[in-house]
């Protein structure tokens, strides 16, 4: 069976696109993503989907701008909506990945697109496994990639679809694509894995990649059993000590792992993890700060993790306070002022860069306590986060000496 026919057969049998009318293809311009685009373009009527394309120019090579122009021209000729963004800031693989997926989610939210499609394939599974092993990832992160999974934190139901995971790169057949010369270098870990480590392992055993794929599948099955066995604890905000103690030691280990994973911004070292497991099993109550933002608590009946402090409360006024220190945010002259908590999908503009508020907090290492501070919103535009940041919108108004001034201070 030819590769395209295999692709179409898998897509139809697995119903990847049955719930979706519009899909966004993540298109780098390389062999993998151009093959994916060609196959989806060829199959769009059969699958009953409309295509859009998103491209990120990472600005790391001289050819990047010309490649973007060529892709834009191709999509214009084919009448395919084309969205692009340029990476800014200090480049790293991790930062670039976050930038791409934040951009993809934004495009999907703004254009009512419900599926993101990427060209990850079978060889990527092997590379990712080795990279995570090298970085010391836990077993639960060695389960490979899902063909279909929920995507983003939008109110919309978005999915990430990887329809090429059963394909080898050797099966890709795009004739018109860009070759990234930097892939031949070893500056990045992924390149070293691809160019040096994997060939060395395959020299020892030509079936190494096949064996690693099989191992990944076995780990996924094992973790599914662990998750099923610990399902009684999955939704709990506090873990019942008696119920926990009834499980075998090995399952207790994974139950605690899953519980800590509910706090993605909390980093617990292996030594800390082992100490927590020891504290849970021994007699006596316990209260200790396991990070600057979280406490670990064990009382007579439960153990749980809690934020060390709640969000600060503020007083606000459109006139200056008579006494005490206060800060201010400049707002438009007209429009209802809304003071509210952060919501999924909130975005701000800072120093000319529009990004998700969640990503801004992470990049700037804003404390969890301050991430709960109120937002100041006018006509669905965010002008500031109290005691954290004034957006470009507010600063522009202040510079032009236009609009209203909102004064605020911490409530005593």
TrEMBL record:
Question: Known EC number(s)?
Answer: 6.3.4.19
InterPro entries per the UniProt record, alphabetical = Lysidine-tRNA-synth_C, Rossmann-like_a/b/a_fold, TilS/TtcA_N, tRNA_Ile_lys_synt, tRNA_Ile_lys_synt_N
A single GO molecular function term of this UniProt record: ATP binding
Supply the Pfam families for this chain: ATP_bind_3
Protein localization: Cytoplasm
The principal location of this protein is: cytoplasm
Key word Metal-binding present: no
Q: What class of enzyme is it?
A: ligase
BP term (GO), one = tRNA modification
Indicate the segments forming the Lysidine-tRNA(Ile) synthetase C-terminal domain, all copies: 337-395
Q: What are the entry keywords?
A: ATP-binding, Cytoplasm, Ligase, Nucleotide-binding, tRNA processing
Record's catalysed reaction(s): cytidine(34) in tRNA(Ile2) + L-lysine + ATP = lysidine(34) in tRNA(Ile2) + AMP + diphosphate + H(+)
Where along this sequence does the record place binding of ATP? Answer: 28-33
Q: Which SMART domains match?
A: TilS_C
CC terms in the record's Gene Ontology section: cytoplasm
Q: Per the record, what about its domains?
A: The N-terminal region contains the highly conserved SGGXDS motif, predicted to be a P-loop motif involved in ATP binding.
Family membership:
Belongs to the tRNA(Ile)-lysidine synthase family.
The UniProt entry, under NCBIfam families, shows: lysidine_TilS_C, lysidine_TilS_N
- What does this chain do? Ligates lysine onto the cytidine present at position 34 of the AUA codon-specific tRNA(Ile) that contains the anticodon CAU, in an ATP-dependent manner. Cytidine is converted to lysidine, thus changing the amino acid specificity of the tRNA from methionine to isoleucine.
Q: What is this protein called?
A: tRNA(Ile)-lysidine synthase
Q: What is the lineage of its organism?
A: Bacteria, Bacillati, Bacillota, Bacilli, Lactobacillales
| Gene name for this UniProt entry | tilS
């Amino acid at each position: 069976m030819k590769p395209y026919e295999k692709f179409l057969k898998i897509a139809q049998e697995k119903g990847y696109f049955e719930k979706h009318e519009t899909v966004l293809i993540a298109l780098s311009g390389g062999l993998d993503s151009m093959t994916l685009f060609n196959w989806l373009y060829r199959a769009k009527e059969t699958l009953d989907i409309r295509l859009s394309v998103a491209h990120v120019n990472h600005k790391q090579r001289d050819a990047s701008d010309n490649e973007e122009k060529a892709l834009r021209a191709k999509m214009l000729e084919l009448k395919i909506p084309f969205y692009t963004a340029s990476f800014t800031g200090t480049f790293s693989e991790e930062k670039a990945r976050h930038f791409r997926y934040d951009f993809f989610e934004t495009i999907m939210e703004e254009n009512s697109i419900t599926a993101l499609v990427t060209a990850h394939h079978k060889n990527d599974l092997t590379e990712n496994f080795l990279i995570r092993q090298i970085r010391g990832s836990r077993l639960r992160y060695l389960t490979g990639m899902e063909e279909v999974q929920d995507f983003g934190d939008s109110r919309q139901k978005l999915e990430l679809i990887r329809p090429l995971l059963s394909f080898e790169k050797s099966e890709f057949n795009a004739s018109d694509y860009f070759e990234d010369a930097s892939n031949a270098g070893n500056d990045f870990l992924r390149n070293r894995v691809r160019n040096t480590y994997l060939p060395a392992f395959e020299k020892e055993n030509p079936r190494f990649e096949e064996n690693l794929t099989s191992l990944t599948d076995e780990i996924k099955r094992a973790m599914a059993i662990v998750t099923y066995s610990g399902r009684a604890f999955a939704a709990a905000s506090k873990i019942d000590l008696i119920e926990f103690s009834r499980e075998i030691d090995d399952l207790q280990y994974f139950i605690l792992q899953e519980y800590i994973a509910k706090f993605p911004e909390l980093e617990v070292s292996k030594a800390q993890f082992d100490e927590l497991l020891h504290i849970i099993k021994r007699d006596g109550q316990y209260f200790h700060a396991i990070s600057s933002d979280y406490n670990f608590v064990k009382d007579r009946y439960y153990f749980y993790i809690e934020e060390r402090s709640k969000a600060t409360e503020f007083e606000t006024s459109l006139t200056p306070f008579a006494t005490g220190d206060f800060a201010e945010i400049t707002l438009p002259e007209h429009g209802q002022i809304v003071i509210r908590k952060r919501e999924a999908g909130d975005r701000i503009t800072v120093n000319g860069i529009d990004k998700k508020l969640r990503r801004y907090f992470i990049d700037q290492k804003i404390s969890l306590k301050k991430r709960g501070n109120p937002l100041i919103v006018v006509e669905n535009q965010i002008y500031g986060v109290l005691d954290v940041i004034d957006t470009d919108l507010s600063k522009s108004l202040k510079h032009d000496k236009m609009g209203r001034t909102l004064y605020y201070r911490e409530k005593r």
